[in-house]
Design a protein that fits this description.
By secondary structure, this protein is α+β, with helices and mostly antiparallel strands. The chain has 13 helices and 13 strands. The chain folds into two domains: 190 residues, no CATH class; 198 residues, no CATH class. Strand 3 and strand 4 form a beta hairpin. The longest helix is centred in the N-terminal third of the chain and has 42 residues.
C-alpha cells in the first residue's frame, strides 16, 4: 500500500485525533454526501420531467410533422402526398388546419387552439386513451361534432347532457376591408360536443373539429397548416424523417416530437444546467470544511511531521499524506452521496413518496429517471472541487517546518 495513503488512513481512523477535528471531518463528509445526493436526485427528476413531457406529447403530437418553413399554411401537392404515403414505416398521414379561435358557450367565451383534422385522425388518434367523458367522435350520420380539452370543458362550464346548447366557434374573415357591422367580419360555426379529453392542464385547450369545418371557418381552401405523419410501431423515425425531407425539400420543416417542442426541452436543459451549477457551488462551499479540518490536522500533527522529516521524508511525501487525508474524506462523502441519491431515485420511482404538491391529470409525484452520466459527471465535479480544496492545506504542511 502507498505509504502516504497508509499514514493518511491512520490519521483518519485514529482515536487519538482531537475530537473537534474529528467533528469537522465528519461534517465535511456529511456536507459533501448530502450535496452529492441532492445533485443526482434533482438531475434525475429533470430527466423524469423530460420523459413525462415526451409521454404527454405522444398523445397530442404526431410522430412527424410537416409544415411550411415560411408562412402559416401551404398548398397540398398530390404527387408529393402520394409519395409520402408510400414511404416504408408510414402508417397514415393526416391533413391538418390549426389556428387560434374564439369559442362561446352560453355566457362564457375562451380563446382556444382550433384543430381541423381528417378522418384518418379520428380512426387512429392516441387521444382515445385520454377520453374522460362522452365519446371520441368528429362526424356521425353526417353530423359534425367537436372534441374538446379539459380546460375548455371546465372554463366554459360545459355540460354534454345539454344537447340544446351547442358550442359556437368564431374566426375572423379573410378580407381586405372591414365591415362597419362587426358580425360581418367574423366566420361562425355552431357545432355539438361529442366528448372531452384530459391529459395535462397546459395541453387541454384544444378543440378538434372535422377538417371541412376548419376550412369553412379559416377560408384556407386547399391549403393546410400541417401534415401529421404517424409511424408504424417498429419504424425508424430518423430514416422516415430523412425520406420525407428528400421529397419535400428545404421549403418545408419536417420535425419529430422533440423538435416540435424544442423550446420546452431547451428550457428544461438550461434549467437543469443552472441547477447543477448552483448545487455544485453549494458543494464547493461545503467542501471548505475539508480545508479547515486539514489545516487543523496539520497543526495537530507537527510532532509526527518532524519525526517523518527526521526519518528521511521529503516535502513530496508530507504533501501526499495530507492530500490523501482530504481525498479519503472526499471519496467517502461522494460515494455515500451517490448511494443515497440512487436509493432516493429508486424509492421515488417505486413509491412516489415525494409529491408535486399540485393536482395533475398525469402524475401526483415527481417522476425520476436514472441517467448514469449524471452520476458520473456529479462525482467527477465533486471530487475535483474537494481535491482542489485539499491541495492548499497539504502544501502548507511543508511550509510549516
Amino acid at each position: 500500500m502507498n505509504l502516504s495513503f497508509l499514514i493518511a488512513r491512520r490519521y483518519f481512523l485514529s482515536r487519538k485525533k482531537k475530537s473537534f477535528i474529528n467533528f469537522i471531518s465528519f461534517m465535511s463528509m456529511l456536507g459533501i454526501g448530502i450535496g452529492t445526493m441532492a445533485t443526482v436526485a434533482v438531475l434525475s427528476v429533470f430527466n423524469g420531467l423530460e420523459d413525462l413531457n415526451r409521454s404527454i406529447f405522444k398523445s397530442i403530437d404526431p410522430d412527424l410533422k410537416i409544415s411550411a418553413r415560411e408562412g402559416k399554411a401551404f398548398t397540398i401537392e398530390k404527387d408529393k402526398l402520394a409519395k409520402l404515403k408510400q414511404i416504408k414505416g408510414v402508417e397514415y398521414v393526416s391533413e391538418v388546419i390549426q389556428d387560434n379561435a374564439l369559442v362561446m358557450y352560453e355566457d362564457g367565451k375562451m380563446v382556444v387552439t382550433l384543430k381541423g383534422v381528417d378522418s384518418n385522425f379520428e380512426k387512429n388518434s392516441r387521444l382515445k386513451g385520454s377520453l374522460v367523458e362522452g365519446s371520441f367522435v368528429l362526424k356521425r350520420d353526417d353530423v359534425d361534432y367537436a372534441f374538446i380539452g379539459g380546460n375548455v370543458y371546465g372554463a366554459l362550464n360545459i355540460s354534454l347532457d345539454n344537447i340544446l346548447e351547442p358550442l359556437e366557434i368564431w374566426y375572423p374573415k379573410n378580407q381586405k376591408k372591414l365591415s362597419l357591422i362587426p358580425e360581418n367580419n367574423i366566420n361562425k360555426k355552431v357545432i355539438n360536443i361529442s366528448g372531452v379529453y384530459a391529459i395535462e392542464q397546459f395541453h387541454d385547450d384544444y378543440v378538434y373539429v372535422p377538417l371541412h369545418v376548419a376550412q369553412e371557418l379559416t377560408e384556407y381552401g386547399d391549403k393546410r397548416t400541417a401534415l401529421e405523419v404517424q409511424l408504424k410501431p417498429n419504424a425508424d423515425s430518423d430514416d422516415v424523417q430523412d425520406a420525407i425531407k428528400a421529397i419535400y425539400g428545404d421549403s418545408y420543416l419536417v420535425q419529430n416530437q422533440d423538435e416540435q417542442n424544442a423550446n420546452l426541452f431547451r428550457a428544461i436543459k438550461i434549467e437543469k444546467l443552472f441547477i447543477f451549477i448552483a448545487l455544485i457551488f453549494i458543494i464547493g462551499v461545503a467542501s471548505f470544511n475539508i480545508f479547515f479540518s486539514l489545516t487543523m490536522l496539520v497543526i495537530d500533527k507537527k510532532a509526527e511531521v518532524r519525526t517523518l522529516y527526521a526519518m528521511g521524508a521529503d516535502d513530496s511525501l508530507i504533501k501526499k499524506i495530507f492530500f490523501s487525508e482530504g481525498a479519503i474524506i472526499s471519496f467517502i462523502g461522494t460515494i455515500v452521496g451517490l448511494i443515497l441519491g440512487f436509493i432516493f431515485c429508486i424509492t421515488q420511482a417505486e413509491y412516489g413518496w415525494l409529491g408535486m404538491g399540485m393536482e395533475s391529470a398525469v402524475v401526483d409525484a415527481y417522476p425520476v429517471k436514472i441517467n448514469p452520466s449524471d452520476f458520473m459527471i456529479t462525482a467527477v465535479a465533486v471530487i475535483i472541487i474537494t481535491l482542489l480544496v485539499s491541495y492548499f492545506p497539504a502544501k502548507r504542511a511543508t511550509s510549516e517546518y
